[in-house]
């Protein structure tokens, strides 16, 4: 973004916000890795201390955790490494439970729908195809259930120091979903929509049509918030921000470019064609939105972080796969660090306007790691265990001395 006006010296602390786009489990993994890299590499940056957050779909899951005081490293331990306190761990299998209630409800309607189709075909003379179109109502609106996710998040946010109530957070959290019947974006967390439990709003924002059934809230049905916009950052910008970090996990792949690992996407068949189409639609809306934000909110520095379009690893990863989440989180961590190094000339003055600065020694340290690194929860537990072992050996040796 273009340069912004500097804040006066000795002014109030900078108002910093965070906007997180969606992208399924892969998007959440990327955002956790990128957030960890940003905090690790920028002195003075603590995403838990942001005054406002907005999340869409998978980004809503991350935003809700940060707003509740969970650091990116803690989210990494719970979601990526499956470590840390047992009660904070996220179990990926919860996202793969079939929507049995939806199946049962639709199946119960099948006999009546079948009778109506036969009546229309045999007695009213309608074509068989037209009559049996009615049977489409018996198809489930989603394959997987999001109820277990909402229940686990409710338990997580009920723990001391956290809240499942937007109004008790002490900071702005907005989770965007789409009203299925009107097509309008609904900002849960804003006045008039802040009575809904945060866990329920996360479920609604991430209810991707076809995969998860619409979520009923106050007699309305809601689906994925990305249907309307990619990031919905204007909701926060309208309240006044000095600096806004934006993360977008899904970008179209630059196939056929120099060093490209995938010369032609068409050779990958329908999955790659559909993935590229979805990413192109999402990214084009984001680009248009950022251009508008630059004109409508010139007082705000907006910093966007997203994968490199040439990054075949992120493009080829299964959007709904957890199997390689540690590897992908580390990849996001390192690629974000590389991006910070490449953009340091423009980022440094932008960050300085808000009391932040790049940690150059850390950025140049090639040994820094996210998963299994020196600062990771797993490494900390290993080091503590080694300390106890060394202490035990010292005690045993002292007792054996004459």
Any overview of this molecule?
- With 402 residues, the protein is an alpha/beta fold.
- Helices cover 44% and strands 11% of the residues.
- The chain has helices at 24-41, 58-67, 72-80, 100-122, 128-132, 147-157, 198-205, 234-237, 270-296, 312-316, 325-342, 344-352, 360-364, 377-400; strands spanning 16-20, 42-43, 52-56, 172-179, 185-188, 215-217, 220-224, 243-247, 301-305, 357-358.
- Strands 1, 3, 4, 5, 6, 7, 8 and 9 form an 8-stranded mixed beta sheet that branches. Strands 2-10 form a two-stranded antiparallel ribbon.
- The longest helix has 27 residues, at 270-296.
- The model is unreliable at 374-384 (pLDDT under 50).
Tags for this model:
about 400 residues, alpha/beta, eight-stranded mixed sheet, two-stranded antiparallel sheet, 14 helices, 10 strands, globular
Task: Outline the secondary-structure elements.
Layout: E1 16-20, H1 24-41, E2 42-43, E3 52-56, H2 58-67, H3 72-80, H4 100-122, H5 128-132, H6 147-157, E4 172-179, E5 185-188, H7 198-205, E6 215-217, E7 220-224, H8 234-237, E8 243-247, H9 270-296, E9 301-305, H10 312-316, H11 325-342, H12 344-352, E10 357-358, H13 360-364, H14 377-400
Helix pairs in contact: 1-2, 1-3, 1-11, 2-7, 6-7
Summarize the structure.
A hairpin with a 2-residue loop joins strand 6 (215-217) and strand 7. The chain has 14 helices and 10 strands.
């Amino acid at each position: 973004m273009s340069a912004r006006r500097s804040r006066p010296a000795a002014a109030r602390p900078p108002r910093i916000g965070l906007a997180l786009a969606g992208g399924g489990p892969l998007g959440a993994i990327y955002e956790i890795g990128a957030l960890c890299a940003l905090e690790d590499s920028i002195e003075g940056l603590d995403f838990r201390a942001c005054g406002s957050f907005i999340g869409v779909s998978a980004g809503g899951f991350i935003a809700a955790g940060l707003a509740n005081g969970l650091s990116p490293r803690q989210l990494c331990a719970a979601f990526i490494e499956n470590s840390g306190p047992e009660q904070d761990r996220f179990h990926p299998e919860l996202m793969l439970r079939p929507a049995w209630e939806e199946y049962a409800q639709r199946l119960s309607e099948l006999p009546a729908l079948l009778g109506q189709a036969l009546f229309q075909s045999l007695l009213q003379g309608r074509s068989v195809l037209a009559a049996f179109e009615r049977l489409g109502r018996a198809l489930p609106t989603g394959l997987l259930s999001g109820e277990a996710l909402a229940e686990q998040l409710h338990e997580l946010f009920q723990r001391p120091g956290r809240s499942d109530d937007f109004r008790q957070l002490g900071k702005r959290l907005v989770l965007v979903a789409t009203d299925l019947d009107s097509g309008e974006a609904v900002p849960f967390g804003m006045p008039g929509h802040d009575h809904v439990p945060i866990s329920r709003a996360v479920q609604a924002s991430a209810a991707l049509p076809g995969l998860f059934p619409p979520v009923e809230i106050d007699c309305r049905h809601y689906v994925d918030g990305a249907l309307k916009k990619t990031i919905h950052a204007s909701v926060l910008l309208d309240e006044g921000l000095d600096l806004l970090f934006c993360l977008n996990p899904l970008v179209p792949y630059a196939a056929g470019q120099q060093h490209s690992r995938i010369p032609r996407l068409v050779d990958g068949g329908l999955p790659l064609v559909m993935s590229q189409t979805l990413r192109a639609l999402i990214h084009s809306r984001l680009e248009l939105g950022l251009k508008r934000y630059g004109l409508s909110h010139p007082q705000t520095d907006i910093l966007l972080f997203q994968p490199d379009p040439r990054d075949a690893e992120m493009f080829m990863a299964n959007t709904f796969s957890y199997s390689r989440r540690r590897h992908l989180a580390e990849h996001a961590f390192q690629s974000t660090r590389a991006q910070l190094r490449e953009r340091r000339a423009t980022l440094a003055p932008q960050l300085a306007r808000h009391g932040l600065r790049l940690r150059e020694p850390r950025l140049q340290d090639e040994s820094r790691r996210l998963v299994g690194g020196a600062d990771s929860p797993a490494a900390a537990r290993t080091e503590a265990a080694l300390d106890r072992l060394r202490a035990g050996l010292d005690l045993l040796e002292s007792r054996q001395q004459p």
